[in-house]
Every structure is written in C-alpha cells, then in structure tokens.
Design goal:
Number of helices: 8
Strand order of the largest sheet: 4-3-5-6-7-8-9-10
Order of helices and strands: HEEHEEEHEEEEEEHEHEHHEEH
Shape: globular
Strand content: 25-35%
Low-confidence stretches: none
Helix content: 25-40%
Distance between the termini: 41 Å
Number of strands: 15
Largest sheet: 8 strands, mixed
C-alpha cells in the first residue's frame, strides 16, 4: 500500500467518522427505541443506520474491500478490509451517557493498520496509523508509567469479568494505584493521550478492539490479549493495553499468576 493510497484511505476513514458522528448525535438522548439481540445486548436504530451508511460509503468507493461489522456481519478479505462498531457502548448511549464511540478499523491482510476512535457526543477523535496517533489533529502520546503500583487502571465494568477472569482482574486491580469503571472505548483514547496507564477488559468481540490497536500502538503503547498474543481476527475477548512495555509485562504476569 503506497503513501497516496494510504492518504486516500485515511480521508475515507475521516468521512466515515463524520457520518457516524452526525447520525449518532441525531439519535443521542432522543428516546430512540431499544431492542435486545440474541446475546442479550442492546441495539438501537442508530446502531443499524450508522453501520449501513458506513458500509454504503465504503462500497461506493472501494467495492472490492471486505467489511465486517457488529450489526450486519460480513467478511474479512485477503487484501484490505474494514471492521466497524457503529456504537461501542450502546448501554451508555441509551442511558444518555456521552462515553460511547464509533470504531472504524482498516485491516491489511488481517492486520489493523489504521484505527479511528470517534467520540460523537464529545467531539473528540483519535486516529492512529503510520507511527503517529492524533487527537483532533494534535499528536497523542501514552504516559511513561512503568510501575503497576502507580498505574491508573480502567475497565468498562466489573460485570465483564466472570469466573477465573474475575479472580485475575481482582488480583491485578488490587495492585494498581487507581482504578476506574464506566468508560467504554473512551478509556483507550485516554490511554493514548496519557491520562490513564492501563486498560484491561474481557468478554469483548473483534469489532470492539480492532480500531483501538493502531490508536494505542501508534501513540507508543502496547496491546495484546491476556496471553501476550497480538490482536487478530481470532481474538480471545480478553485485552491488555498498557502505556509501556514494562507495565504491560507486569500486568500480564499478575493476570497469569491468578489464572
């Protein structure tokens, strides 16, 4: 993928994020009806319309690209593919909490090379690619935290951990300097900008994380699953994102020891 092609793809990703922002703001705090999917998670008209619009925009520009989304499925192609989560944090969205986002990732042969974390209600957008992550156009960098005892740990909810995962998370979270919940995908933006140091979650899907990998890595951070493996389409659902390799290593050791 040459530089000109990448710039065109980045421009499209920005257009997709603009469309997601507009549609999400239209429905946010509007009393939109909520349905329950087969996995007991909530879904709204906004989720479905955003994904449909983004799919249409991609197909009109790059009909040969693969598209995989939370609401309408799809496929990952051998070349370039997009992974979309139209509203990450639907529970926050339907409760009027502005910490929901839209996640857009571009994969090259299955590897995420471009990630967009769009926060529609907040007007904040992180974009990661080519060794650089920006927040609204300004460079974002992770913190320099290397000590688990000083780390600021975030997770969306304690409810996402069960059984051995809950025990492992408890072992880790009792060692950190501070822990916070309720952020959905926003935690990863805060990590990329140096406002938190560690995000540990479980029970996630591929579309929940693909866009976040380039955002964190290009801001200088480290992202793997709990076993230290790279995030790919066989993602286990458990993620560790850290500001530094040293902090990441300590987190993995605590999770593994408890497991």
């Amino acid at each position: 993928m040459d530089t000109d092609s990448l710039q065109e793809l980045i421009a499209l990703a920005e257009e997709l994020a603009n469309a997601a922002r507009s549609k999400a703001r239209h429905y946010f705090r509007s009393g939109v009806a909520v349905s329950t999917k087969s996995d007991a998670s909530p879904v709204t008209q906004a989720d479905r319309e955003i994904e449909s619009e983004l799919r249409s925009m991609i197909a009109s520009r790059y009909p040969g690209h693969g598209v995989f989304g939370e609401e309408h499925g799809g496929s990952i192609e051998a070349g370039l593919s997009w992974v979309i989560d139209p509203i990450d944090g639907t529970k926050s969205f339907v409760c009027g909490v502005p910490l929901f986002g839209s996640l857009i990732a571009l994969l090259n042969h299955g590897k995420p090379v471009l990630g967009v974390l769009e926060m529609p209600a907040l007007g904040e957008r992180w974009i990661g690619h080519s060794g650089r992550t920006t927040l609204n156009g300004t460079e974002a960098r992770v913190s320099s935290c290397t000590s688990i005892g000083e780390a600021r740990l975030f997770a969306t909810s304690p409810d996402m951990f069960s059984g051995p995962d809950a025990e492992a998370f408890a072992a880790l979270s009792h060692k950190v300097g501070m822990r916070r919940f309720g952020t959905d995908c926003y935690a990863y933006g805060l990590l990329a900008s140096g406002h938190c140091d560690l995000v540990v979650e479980a029970s996630l899907k591929t579309y929940d994380v693909m866009a976040l990998v380039p955002v964190i890595e290009n801001a200088g951070g480290v992202v793997t699953d709990w076993d230290g493996h790279p995030i790919d389409m066989d993602f286990s659902g458990r993620i560790v994102a850290a500001s530094t390799p040293a902090l990441h290593e300590q987190a993995l050791a605590l999770l593994k020891h408890a497991d």
